[in-house]
Amino acid sequence: METQLRVERLLSRYVVCIDDDALESWPEFFVAEGCRYEIITRENVERGMPLALVFCNSQGMLVDRIVSLREANIYPQRWYRHIVSNVLIQEVTADHLAVQSHYVVLQTRRNGQTSIFSTGKYRDRIVLCNGEFKFAEKCVVADTHSIDTLLVAPI
After folding, report:
1. What is the dihedral of CA 119, 144, 126, 130, to 10 degrees?
2. Which of 21, 80, 94, 124 is deepest in the core (most CB within 10 A)?
3. Does the keyword Oxidoreductase feature in the UniProt annotation (predicted)?
């Protein structure tokens, strides 16, 4: 039970970081060396096509993504709200946990309109790093193959 609670806490802290727009802290949820973050459509996964919408294979790439979001690109302001459920530890090995969970991301625009931005599942490989759980891999499998607005913030 303690492991389940620690995993759920990691996921909760992860989505709060995004929802509260504390994105400069987002890369810290990943291991420093050799992490992987990708957003891929369910359709591509089912067809065995590895093409991802977003692919980062280092913590430096995660940092660059946030720096670009903050400094290089201009986007209309939006607020996100994540709902994470069905957190299931699928595998426990000596060096990692394989975890799957479901997510829904709601997006509210400046005009107050709220809509479903993305739904899908997280497939995570979580490791213990200096006594703290971190993501070695986070694969976001989006149910839909199109996103109606720019994919700005992490999912």
Report:
1. -70
2. 124
3. yes
Helices (H), the chain: 2-19, 42-46, 59-67
Distances (CA, A) of 20 to 16, 82, 83, 112: 6, 10, 14, 17
Read off the pLDDT of residues 5-32 as tens digits, 9 standing for 90 and up.
999 999 999 999 999 999 999 999 999 9
13 within domain boundaries: yes
Residues 6+ apart with CB under 8 A from 145: 41, 42, 43, 44
Please calculate the CA angle 132-138-141 and round it to the nearest 5 degrees. 150
Per residue in 92-113, pLDDT tens?
A: 999 999 999 999 999 999 899 9
The predicted pLDDT at position 149 comes to 62
The predicted model scores a pTM of 0.92
CATH of the domain at 135: 3.10.450.50
Nearest CA to 13 out of 114, 144, 126, 89 is that of: 126
Tokens of 54: 């977003």
Domain that includes residue 49, residue range:
2-142
Answer yes or no: are the C-beta atoms of 68 and 75 closer than 8 Å. Answer: no
Please report the sign of the dihedral spanned by the C-alpha atoms of residue 136, residue 19, residue 140, residue 53: negative
